[in-house]
Design a protein that fits this description.
mainly beta
């Protein structure tokens, strides 16, 4: 099951997005211990995008949560992402992201910080 919503509370300025997913997963590889029935997975996200300068700069913030298996404890993942999107010219955009991600493990939490810059072209 997947649900998604997209809403512009301030037209052409502020865009809010949210999504939720829930499913029952299994693997076809029975040689993996417990792999035949992974259990239920669920996750959600919330995102806010704000257009600072129309057609010039947009900033965004997002929160993600994922529990990949209800049969495994201490395996949740959470992430905070902050982004900047700046169109350079027709179809070309600069995108910068910073993400702080925490992954739970039986031995504790693994934290990962990622800074990413990319240029994309959409035609």
């Amino acid at each position: 099951m997947i649900a998604y919503a997209n809403f512009w509370p301030v037209r052409e300025k502020l865009n809010l997005k949210a999504g939720y997913g829930y499913g029952h997963d299994s693997l076809s590889d029975n040689t993996v211990a417990g792999g035949a029935n992974v259990g239920n997975s669920k996750g959600f996200f919330g995102e806010a995008d704000y257009i600072v300068i129309p057609a010039k700069m947009e900033v965004g913030a997002r929160y993600d949560y994922l529990d990949p298996s209800s049969k495994v404890s201490h395996n949740n993942q959470k992430a905070y992402t902050f982004s900047v999107n700046a169109p350079i010219m027709h179809g070309m955009q600069f995108i910068g992201d910073y993400q702080h991600k925490t992954s739970e493990q039986p031995t504790g939490k693994n934290k990962d910080d990622t800074l990413e810059a990319r240029v994309i072209f959409i035609w």
